Amino acid sequence: MSEPKETITLYCQKGGSDKFYTACIIEENGGFTVPINYGRRGTSGQSGSKTKEPIPYEKAKAIYDKIIKEKMGKGYTPGEGMSPMAGNVIEKIDSGLFPQLLDEITEDELEKYLRDDNFGAQEKKDGQRKFLKHDEGNTTSINKKGFEVGFASVFKTACEAYNEAGKDNFTFDGEEIGETLHIFDALCLNGKDMRNLPYLQRHSELALFISYDTGNEAIKLVPLAIGYETKKALYDRLVKEEKEGIIFKRLDAPYTEGRSSDQVKLKFYATASIIVIRINEKRSIGMGIIENDKVIEIGNCTIPPNKDIPEVGKIAEVRYLYFYKGGSLYQPTYLDVRDDVDKEECVISQLKYKAEED
Predict the structure, then answer these.
(1) How large is the average pLDDT for residues 255-279?
(2) Is 76 exposed, middle or buried (0-12, 13-18, 19+ CB in 10 A)?
(3) Which of 11, 39, 150, 167 is the most buried (most CB within 10 A)?
């Protein structure tokens, strides 16, 4: 994808919200497209396009100018930019990279993994899974589906700083929270394919690789706890601080795509991907889930003042205590929109049921 011919990032702080909107004009396949990226500041936002296919520059420019005029009329003002879209938003680019996913365990299995010295432990971060790839000066962000997506400019700046230090051709695997990527693995470092190496070696070499002080806090390494006492101390701290959960990784295992028993997670509370089926009054949405190929309602959820209300049809992540069978989620808390989850994944089987009383 070529560098944008024009690009602008607009910001809006009104009514407790803090939003950004980025638009570009990109030369592509003999014409021009107008990709956009928008959302809450501190996130990678949602991707889209104002053109279905490449069009003449004059038409693309007219669309681009109209966007700016409309947004500034709604109170948006120009500011420091986000990175342009890191992929073609007209036709999704499959990067060929797919993450290693984690099996879920229960509290009953916790002690087994704490005492097994073949496994190390890490904090489970509560964000969106992302790859960050940098090769020959080009930075790309890739989501859990394997598609290239937009990314905050701080990630590009951090990658360029490593590049200036003589470090290039690397791919980090991590969890994006706001404008920080918490990395816990590496698929490639300085052109070296890391995937067949044991996880302990991958993590150790990753720690050395990012030890160069870039002066940028956008990329942080997730520490690895080894041995029973260290893992137990980590678990106790995460529970006390009400974190999302803990992860156990087999130290001698290679990196493999898809689910694997080499990496497991224990979540301290339940989360679910739901479908937004309506917008209610007083900043609330109706939640839906798929059962027997039909979308059924599972209650309402309030949207916090500092977050945008998602559109009907969007996929959102919510936290909850449990699900009443045939009823609603109990005490749901809205987390954010998920653009890396398909509607088909919003199934009732993901829900945690309230235990029946004797």
Answers:
(1) 92
(2) buried
(3) 150
